[in-house]
């Protein structure tokens, strides 16, 4: 059994201008191609607990952590992966049907999304009993995305990755998680 435990509750949850603040990531890795030296990029998606379609790991950003720490924590809790945050992909607003409360009665959320280069897949993680993970290509992920805003984040990831591979963006160092001030 894992000694990692998922955080629960809303007492530490951050809000801003009526939005519940959320952090998440698009976990990715490279695998060898069957057709030569080119590598294929795959993204990791997880099943939704409330219907069909796949999701990227994300969840509430809490008061005692930076947004980067929250994104890394959600990747561990929901998808059982660890790695390096490589790129901030943007903020994405959406309406949650399941997370309406006194601070966000309409259920509005704003998700800060990052690209996470996966270095380790855990055998045991907090939500393994309710989550299945699936490595798929970007075109497959676009078809499987449960939410439009996640498709938009994936398109931002795809554009960043294409620029990175073509040399437009060059090599990037991972984003520091431990010492980053809150966003």
Automatic annotation (TrEMBL):
Cofactor: Mg(2+)
Gene Ontology CC terms: cytoplasm; nucleus
GO molecular function (one): pyrophosphatase activity
Residues covered by the Nudix hydrolase domain: 18-158
PROSITE patterns: NUDIX (PS51462), NUDIX_BOX (PS00893)
Alphabetical keyword list: Hydrolase, Magnesium, Metal-binding
InterPro entries to which the protein is assigned, alphabetical: DDP-like_NUDIX, NUDIX_hydrolase-like_dom_sf, NUDIX_hydrolase_CS, NUDIX_hydrolase_dom
SUPFAM superfamilies per the UniProt record, alphabetical: Nudix
Family annotation (Pfam families): NUDIX
Protein family (similarity comment): Belongs to the Nudix hydrolase family.
PANTHER family: DIPHOSPHOINOSITOL POLYPHOSPHATE PHOSPHOHYDROLASE (PTHR12629), DIPHOSPHOINOSITOL-POLYPHOSPHATE DIPHOSPHATASE (PTHR12629:SF0)
Protein name as annotated: Nudix hydrolase domain-containing protein
């Amino acid at each position: 059994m894992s000694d990692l435990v998922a955080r629960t509750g809303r007492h530490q949850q951050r809000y801003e201008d009526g939005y519940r603040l959320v952090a998440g990531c698009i976990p990715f890795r490279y695998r060898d191609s069957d057709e030569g030296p080119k590598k294929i990029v795959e993204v990791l998606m997880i099943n939704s607990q409330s219907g069909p379609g796949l999701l990227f790991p994300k969840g509430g950003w809490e008061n005692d952590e930076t947004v980067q720490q929250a994104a890394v924590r959600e990747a561990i809790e929901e998808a059982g992966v660890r790695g390096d945050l490589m790129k901030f992909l943007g903020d994405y607003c959406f309406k949650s049907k399941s997370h309406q409360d006194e601070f966000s009665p309409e259920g509005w959320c704003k998700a800060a999304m990052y690209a996470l280069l996966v270095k380790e897949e855990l055998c045991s993680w907090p939500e393994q009993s309710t989550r299945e993970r699936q490595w798929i290509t970007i075109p497959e992920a676009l078809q499987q995305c449960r939410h439009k805003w996640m498709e938009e984040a994936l398109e931002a990831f795809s554009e960043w990755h294409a620029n990175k591979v073509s040399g437009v963006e060059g090599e990037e160092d991972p984003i520091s998680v431990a010492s980053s001030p809150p966003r």
